[in-house]
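QA checklist item 7 of 12: single-chain prediction sanity check.
[x] sequence parsed
[x] length recorded as 451
[x] structure emitted
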Amino acid sequence: MLPFIIASLLFILVIAYGYGNLSIFICGIFYTIILAIIARKLFGKNNRLFQRLTLIWIIAITFVVIVYFLYYKTYGVPYDKQGMDDYFYDVIWSDECLKYGYMTINDLLAEPEYCFHNSKTYLLLIVWMKYIFRFFGGYHTIDIRMFNMMMLTISGMLMGKYAEKYLGADKKTAIRVVTAIVLFPNAMFISSLVYRDALVAFFIVSIFYLWTCFFKKTAKGKFLTVFLTIVITYLTYYCRLQAILYLALAIGVGLLNNSPDKNVLFGKSYLKKFLLFFIAFIVLFNVGDAVFANFNRFVNSYNKMISNGEGIQAKIRGIPLLPVGWIFQTLFFLITPMYRDIVPVEMIKDPISILRGFVSWGTIYLLFLYPYVFRFLKRMNNIVVIYAVILLSVAIVTSGFRHVIMTYPMLLTIGIMGRSQASEQSVQNARLMSVTAAGVFGFAFVLLKVL
């Protein structure tokens, strides 16, 4: 534990010195100690885990710096000029809130300009960072980006412990789960930008972990679980409202199944039938949202694709959601994001293509993991149910590269566990399936580009 703290803080000190900003080092101290405490609580005195965690944390922070540099080199600012949501969070909205003293959720609710803001929790997090660090040399955008990485790392550790405690993973496999989640390319990329998505993913993972085997907890454990759930639910409500459904599902699954690796859905229990109904409600709710609330978006996307020849995403979105459009959207979501910059040949003119290529290789890695995921899905245990519902509902209403992060903790845990428990013959079959799938998707990719 101590070597992890020392090595991490020395590295962060170098980063802070390079940027000439004290707040980076203060945040680094705070984040590193939190990670050390949680790692010790979850895994005890596991030297191998702390060695791996040291490497993971240093790589994660290094990636934040690389993303900052590449965006600055490309756009002149460390934000995505094509979207600019990150810029509004980190500069426009947060500065305005600080200027007028909007420091609480009630303050934002009272203001017409911010009462309908879709992520008050994340916005206020930045506002309070700016308020506190004005006494320590001023806030730096690296502060919130390292926070996102910390959330991703904690999510990875929670799922690693879940795999060890409830899915039968040995310590080596549990560490692989942690590593896969934190260092997955698109997860790191999303977390290195000023977006709320890593925080939302953490909320989902934490509730899922807390409510597993709830009835086997002590009275103190149950009280702590309920208290933390109230806090997290409140923060989630004002961070990403739709995620409340996933928290409710995680609680329901935890209450209904005290054996997390057993089938959670099928049986004579009326409660299990109610859970099936609730899952159907979540999926249909998202279908309804996509069909009715966003109907014009689908029609406009289709028309624009016909007239202007938009890309594959528009072609997929142009297919009516019912009866078969949702299938194509889910399949597309499984290989999202995938950019043409798999080999960034234009990295001199477009430095961001390096990041797009890195992210694309992560998606290619998933193609080789999916056979193990699909084999694992037939268990219909707690983690499978949560993953499947989030996958279907998110795929229906979005195709952005950011929201997919909500599926990664469960997806990568399932994939790593499936691989660790597969026989040699199964591994060979999986490789054949992966190569075939890669060929099919590659052919479809080229075909849709041509059409």
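[x] summary fact logged: Residues 298-309 have pLDDT under 50 and may be disordered.
[ ] second reviewer sign-off
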